[in-house]
Automatic annotation (TrEMBL):
GO cellular component: ribosome
Presence of keyword Aminoacyl-tRNA synthetase: no
Species this protein is from: Bhargavaea beijingensis
Protein's name in the database: Ribosomal protein S18 acetylase RimI
Keywords noted in UniProt: Acyltransferase, Ribonucleoprotein, Ribosomal protein, Transferase
Classification of source organism: Bacteria, Bacillati, Bacillota, Bacilli, Bacillales
Amino acid sequence: MKIRDYREEDQASWLRCRVLSFMDSSYFDDVQRDREKYDNPVIQIVAVDHNGVVGFLDCEYEEKQGDVCYFKGDRGGVIWHMGVLPDYRGQGLATAMWHAAKKRLKENHVHRVEVWTQDDLEATRWYLKQGFVFKEAYLNAYLKGSLGDPTLKKFLNLQDCGDIFGIRSLNFEAPIERKEELADICYRLHEVRVYEAEL
């Protein structure tokens, strides 16, 4: 097993690893067909073995304050992608990738890192163990229904939609304070949480 920088030839293996790593999480439907391009400097770490990429971590960081981070403060970065294939979990790969990224972030004078994650218990435990602190949350809500559904009418002005047959899925963000109200009507409801760690 090797922890190293991502290379262009890793792309297909990286994309496959990302899909499989997210299948047992609330991000199971966040499938990407291409590698993300960043506007700012990025540290891209992978864990590889003879099968290819088995873990990944992407952390974009600011050249100047406010370019990347949600919170104001010292120059920071954001972990946009992180995962380990299920068969490779529990071997310290996530921690090893994080330590490699953290070292490089410090070398680039980055003082803090944010991460956005949903309510996946194992991921949350890992971030807390690494010293990340919960800052705030909002809801990622999924609703579906027929055109005659009064619940759906409450969320959409269907008169302005034109001729449609129904809504397969309405995905929207809402304040965390609406969790109890939305829990009764949404088929999926996740807390999106932002954590921050000082380096």
